[in-house]
Amino acid sequence: KARMEQARVLRESCGWRTREQADEEFQFLEEVTGALAKASPDAVATTFVAMEFARKAKVTPEQARNLEYVLQRSFCAAPDFAEGVECAVGARKGQTPAWNVPSLEVALSSPRMREVEKLVKSVDLDADMAQL
Question: Whole-model pTM?
Fold first, then answer.
């Protein structure tokens, strides 16, 4: 949201080389915001936690792959995963998923995110994939 607001301000200022550049950035941000609004708040929060860890730990692409693999295994067992799949391609295709967590704010402060943080910190980033 903060980036959207910055884009709005810059769109009307001289902070962009061209109006077209501003419009393209703004359109991209609107698309991302729309996609995130439809996604599982729990999945978005999990992704945020993992990305923050990866940024702070300065992980390599290979280490990021290990982190993602462990998180995917964990997340596939979460109820929101099945709900999303069922509404995307399953028996309820086209319906709006009923996520277990109502918002990103709630998801970020949930006990599950403390579990995700522990899981992220416990991943052996340098392990062979077969060991994960």
Answer: 0.74
As a whole number of angstroms, the distance between CA 112 and CA 10 comes to: 37
> Residues 123, 67, 46, 76: is their CA dihedral positive or negative?
negative
The rounded distance, in Å, linking the Cα atoms of 129 and 65 is 9
| Model pLDDT for residues 65-83, shown as the tens digit of each residue | 989 998 888 888 888 999 9
Give one DSSP letter per residue of 82-120, joined into a string: HHHHHHHTSTTTTSPP--SS--HHHHHTSHHHHHHHHHH
Q: pLDDT digits over 41-64, tens only?
A: 999 999 999 999 999 999 999 899
